[in-house]
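hey so u asked for the seq, here:
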Amino acid sequence: MAMTDGLTLGLDVSDKYTNYCLLDSEGEVSEEGRLKTSEPILRKRFEGAPCRVIMEAGAHSPWISRVFADMEYEVIVANPRRVQLIAQSNRKNDRADAETLARLGRADPKLLGPVKHRDQQAQADLAVVRGRNALVAARTLLINHVRGAVKSVGGRLPASDAHSFHQKAKEHIPQELRLALEPLIDTVEQLSFQIREADRRVKALIDERYPVANCLQQVAGVGPLISLSFILTIGDPTRFQRSRELGPYLGLVPRQRESGDSSPALRISKAGDSFLRHLLVNGAQYILGYRGPDCDLRRWGLKRAAGGKAAKKRAVVGVARRLAVLLHRLWVTGEVYEPLRRQSVAA
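ran it, structure tokens below
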């Protein structure tokens, strides 16, 4: 761990400016100020003054944390969910937020629920996956708009999947809407091409840098997208002592609010990475769907899905949680996946 000389630096980062508060070894404010959110400026001001650096996770925290880590400073990135003193403060401003972060980090960093950022290469690779997701969202938005516009004039487009939409839709567009909708259909076609290219880039990343993702794809419902996202989001699998820790980490377990004899049933916490959680839920829905293959996960989920919509939703979340645990276990051990392991053990 880097030497800090007892100094603690709190940073409240925004797009243009970063407010900072430096506490001395006695916990007194020795310096406050505001700098432009720029790597050269941050390096020039703080290089050579070892300290513990505290900031909240946000858009700029990955690269700023790497800047201070490169200077061999101790860096703690706080989970915003854990910093309620800032979110609920009656005296909330950027200068006060920087001081609050510094004092919390000086008292006990564990109170901040430290976030571990992935390295720069992994962040760039994950951007490929998330960029694909943005393309899919844009295509879905355009397709829904075109279908809605056609319905509004009494027309209807034929059923088709998103990949073939542009091929089937054009000839069914009402004449009065062609000027407005044909450019959108052309854009859908371009987006479909870009999505196919993104799929090829995802597979290339697996072949070149993350071959372990192929081990995770042994599980039905887990393809290149889920396996690569899982590996890039988790980063180092050994930071979890037990695979079951993945459920709370990804927000797939119920929140707790116990008090005395009261222990209400609450919804899942939705902590952690929302993108990976969404992908795991999609995988769980495939496993429980009519095309899902027979396996322990499916059998477990179907038993709990009986009883209406609420039970089915809980079953999907439960399967997504168990899927995350299973993928972590396969990653760590490199084992061959047995879909019906419980059955073989019982036999």
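Residues 305 and 312 are 4 Å apart (CA to CA). The longest helix spans residues 120-151.
lmk if thats what u needed
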